[in-house]
Design a protein that fits this description.
The chain is an alpha/beta fold. The chain has 10 helices and 8 strands. The structure holds NADPH dihydro-nicotinamide-adenine-dinucleotide phosphate (NDP) and (2S)-3,4-dihydro-2H-pyrrole-2-carboxylic acid.
Length: 268
Amino acid sequence: MIMSILQFGCGNMGGAMLKGWLAGGFAPQSFTIVDPYLETAPAGVRLLGAAPEGEGAFEVVLLGFKPQQLPDAARAIAPSIGPQTLLLSILAGVDIATLRSHFPLARAIVRVMPNLAAALGKSPIALVGDADEAARAQSDALMAPLGQAEWLSDEDQMDLVTALAGSGPAFVYRFIDALAQGAAELGLPRDQADRLALSMVEGAAMLAAGSDHAPAELARRVASPGGVTQVGIDVLDADDRLVSLMTDTLRGARDRSAEMTRQAQAKT
Ligand SMILES: NC(=O)C1=CN([C@@H]2O[C@H](COP(=O)(O)OP(=O)(O)OC[C@H]3O[C@@H](n4cnc5c(N)ncnc54)[C@H](OP(=O)(O)O)[C@@H]3O)[C@@H](O)[C@H]2O)C=CC1
Ligand SMILES: O=C(O)[C@@H]1CCC=N1
């Protein structure tokens, strides 16, 4: 699949996607990266400090900078977007109507919500778009090397999905850190607690990903009746503590995404 892909912003998330695409066999020559911060790009990838001029529209344009940078960036990006362009946006809290108002010519606009595991081809990827069948198929093909793509039936779900799939790694990292902090509090050397907590989560996630059983059932299988694990699970379950904490965490992040959406709408 040879395409001209123009990517604006190659920081944490854009960089992870580029890594995933190159690892997945996409030709480096397909990519033009625009990023004022980046000093080098992977071999074969064209790197520009500002939007290309006089090159016309690209087949695929990816917006990968911070949502707040859109109003200033839009004018320079617009000439690269034409009636043949599939516009992909990973900007959290910027809806399709807002993107359409900045880029009215785009053939199709698809919001993409990945996470940093795209670099390993292990990201959940939520998609929602103003896109016909062909644009959806093209988006699916582009996402295939990055992880598991799922189309949302309603754009309103994007705020919650951003919290779950996009922000989610941060919550898991905090969980790992909290486990290690707890173990250190109870007497283990901190560096050893860090190593054990991380390798435990890595193995548990791999087992769950390869299992036919749901995570709740897998937890039941670890807990021997009258044994050690059940006492810990009872602490997590008391007053629905863990579920309440996760629900509040997602609610807060979801509501911030919705607030950012309103702020971006106000700046069109
Ligand atoms: N980080 C994550 O895990 C996830 C992030 N996202 C989304 O990804 C986007 C990027 O986030 P993240 O990678 O963390 O941010 P970063 O700040 O790491 O990367 C953004 C990059 O874009 C550059 N940039 C700024 N303005 C422009 C421009 N006009 N044209 C081209 N490049 C530009 C920035 O340069 P400079 O530093 O000079 O401004 C920076 O290098 C956000 O919209 C976020 O909502 C989505 C899912 C997960
Ligand atoms: O924190 C953020 O706004 C972005 C969206 C998901 C992950 N990072």
